[in-house]
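We include the pair:
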Amino acid sequence: ARLDHHWRMLLDGGRFLADPETAGRVATALGGSNEVSLEQTVTPNAGITASEGGAVDLLEMANRRHRNLRLRLQDGRLMLTVRTGGRGPEAYPTIELFRLPSRRASHVVVTYSPARLTGYLDGEKRLELGADSIRGDFFHFRPLPLVFGSVEPAAHRADVRLEGVAIYDRVLSAEAVGDEFARYRARLAERRAVPATVVRARLVGRNEPPTLTEISPYREALVEFEYEVVEVIAGDPAARRLRVAHWSILDGEVLPINRREVGTVHRLELEPFERNPQLESLFVARSASPPAAAPLYYAPDPGPDPGDAASGGSSGAP
């Protein structure tokens, strides 16, 4: 999991973890009020791998043995599981809320108080259930980790972006939900698009990747490589020589990109480095005197470059 250029959480099979103090405060507040409203804006960009079950957990309060609640995107449908009892499957009812459109931002609010659940999509009420469908309170809630993404490691990658998350220990009114949607819609409208450039390029220079010891106690780092453009597929790279910052270490894992060999050709999907402010605090292994004429780009995807095999190049994978 990582942040994109708009500071959205890009889950991509990973997770973000709230600090324990925050997680405990949330669990205590919900258990005390027996009410909750979950608000977030979700963008499923590239869909979900159906062969792997098609599920992405957006928010969980859980560990490997217990769960207070979970909001999950399952094959394009939003699903809520909330603990409303003591033991057994009936204590963890799962409710299908509604389907989310892909490739656009959706503002979602789900509210629950004993025996009443309401779901809103883009400010409009889409679901309302009463005691015949769900009942119970949060008496059995306990302090558990608050996770954006899945508690368990995901078996697949999925481009799902999450932002604007709020957790309330009360039920929001329909009017308040509408106001929240209008506020966030205005915020999204103010954003400037980040230009994308797609090229096939030959690796002509590389810097020594960082080590975990070198970046400790941090667990993420980038490495800068130099490429010569072979073919422009989309956008305007503005130069024949490019510097590209790739993910070298992510969540403590040293990535295959570090073994990419000089002379191999790759399909690169790039964004201007300066348009990605979320990277400013990260360690970047780069040359002390980079080529002045080579603009700096960022490769957001930490995995093998899509289409490498088809284009006759090497993906850099082992």
About this structure: Residues 25 and 143 are 8 Å apart (CA to CA).
